[in-house]
Amino acid sequence: MPLRKHNEVLDDLYRDINHRRYVHPDPLEFLYNYDDPSDRELVALIASSMAYGRVAQILQSVSDALGRLGDRPAEFLSESGPAKIRRAMRGFKHRFNTGDHVAAMLIGTRNVIKKHGSLGACFASGVSDGDSTFLEALIAFVGEITDAAGADCGHLLPDPARGSACKRLCLMLRWLVRKDRVDPGGWDAVPASTLLIPLDTHMHKIASGLGATKRKAADMRTVVEVTEAFRKVAPDDPVRYDFALTRLGIRNDMDVAEFLELCNNREQADA
After folding, report:
1. Helix 201-209 to helix 220-231 angle, to the nearest 10 degrees?
2. Strand, helix or coil at 103?
3. Average pLDDT, the chain
4. What share of residues in the chain are helix, strand, coil (percent, to 5)?
């Protein structure tokens, strides 16, 4: 079933659910505390890198990591050498990742910012005119940070070149590129049309139910396929419905099965 058959239902969901009052609990909420784009992009990288596991643990870990960097995390990073960054992260733990992993990512980030001026400028340097997605830019972006880290970043930065769905990095890009009632934006040089769907098992189930993919693996190939399906509905903003759709099943008052049944019933009525 082509997704454009469901554009009315999707638009209704976006209108009803795409509000900040539905954000909590979500690591996205940390970005709202920072008006400075240099702080916000760094917070987005940290918050998204830890967005795996139980949501309560994610929020606790992100809060812990940011607390170690003070009120102006970008300023802390620019004024701190590798040794100070490692000391700040000493004793940190988030599931498979230690303070050493976070410190390595931050050191790499610091070096990239010194080279490009900002994370946004680094990412934008990999975007070419005519790119349908930001995949090549994402590969270059992750490569620059990990190469500049000088140590293992652990599970914090998945490698898109190896076919990973890179859900957390796609989330970060959605937060920083889009700008609406939920996503705060800031990376204006990156077109929203190049965004990729942040795909996990939950979003994969929804996308499959909507007929956006028949693939079983939640990998980058599926991400591109699902994104292309949504691009037919919203060419300039293919991840427009991501936040609203992922609220289904997360909150007790929103149900995936009921939404898919509504789409099916609407399609039959229009047939």
Report:
1. 40
2. helix
3. 93
4. 60, 0, 40
The token pair at 40 is 């916000």
Mean pLDDT of 103-132: 96
Task: Give the whole-angstrom CA distance, residue 156 versus residue 162.
Answer: 15
pTM, full prediction: 0.94
* C-alpha pair distances (Å), 45 with each of 112, 114, 156: 13, 16, 9
Q: Residue 241 and residue 10: Cα distance in Å, rounded?
A: 7
Distance CA 128, CA 148 (A): 23
pLDDT at 114 (0 to 100): 98
Q: What are the extents of the domains in the chain?
A: 3-270
Whether the per-residue pLDDT at 265 is higher than 80: the answer is no
Confidence of residue 268 (pLDDT cuts 50, 70, 90): low
- Percentage of the chain with pLDDT > 70? 96
Q: What is the pLDDT of residue 245?
A: 94
Mean pLDDT for 124-138 is 94
The answer to whether 168 and 124 have CB atoms below 8 angstroms apart is no
β-bridge partners, 98: 93
Long-range CB contact pairs, 154-157, < 8 A, 24+: 154/96, 154/97, 154/98, 154/101, 154/104, 155/52, 155/95, 155/96, 155/97, 155/101, 156/49, 156/50, 156/97, 156/101, 156/102, 156/105, 157/49, 157/105
Write down the residue that tokens 């004024």 correspond to. Answer: 79
Euclidean distance between CA atoms 176 and 17, whole angstroms = 19
d(C-alpha 135, C-alpha 143), whole Å: 12
What is the rounded distance in angstroms from the CA atom of residue 135 to the CA atom of residue 224?
9
